[in-house]
Amino acid sequence: MKHKAVIFIMLLGLLVVQSCSINDTPEKIQKEELAFIIQTMEDAISTTPYSALILHASVDVISVLDDDSIEKHIYHAKILETYRGQKLENISYTMFVEKGETVFTNKEPFVVILCVNNEGFYWPGTGSSFPATEKIVEAAKRISQNVKLIQQSFPYCE
To answer: Which of 88, 128, 79, 81 minimizes the C-alpha distance to 104?
Structure first.
């Protein structure tokens, strides 16, 4: 199911790119890109159990014992605002990446969408983090007010 969501997001992105013509103004293109980002974020928030505005504090890089090509990155962050899920002050979440991949060290706040399993929070993949612009943060607040409070299934995490 996760792969279908990623394919859908990629196809939607192609439609946005194709809808831009050579005569489009930068403002029109920016509006279309923002609309795409907000729609992607809405889909992600409604199909995952946790979303928040965070600021990274540190990251631990750990080798995966049974796979030499994969590393486990454990990110530690301060939560500035919770949109969906338990309200916490700090959070740690896991991301599995190819060995040697650049560690994400953004020092600016951003909106993150997370899944949870028996080991804790984890990053579900592409389309799960968004820049904390004023319009995106406003949209995250609005979207989170319209999601189901009690939800059993989270398709983006499957």
So the answer is: 128
Domains of the chain, CATH where assigned: 2-148 (2.40.50.120)
Find the Cα–Cα–Cα–Cα dihedral 135, 141, 146, 147, rounded to 10°.
110
pLDDT tens readout for residues 21-75: 344 555 655 888 889 989 999 988 888 899 999 999 999 988 887 877 888 999 9
pTM of the predicted model over 0.85 = no
Distance between CA atoms of 110 and 131, rounded to whole angstroms? Answer: 5
Distance CA 52, CA 36 (A): 19
Report residue 3 as tokens: 């792969």
Element (H, E) at 43: helix 26-46
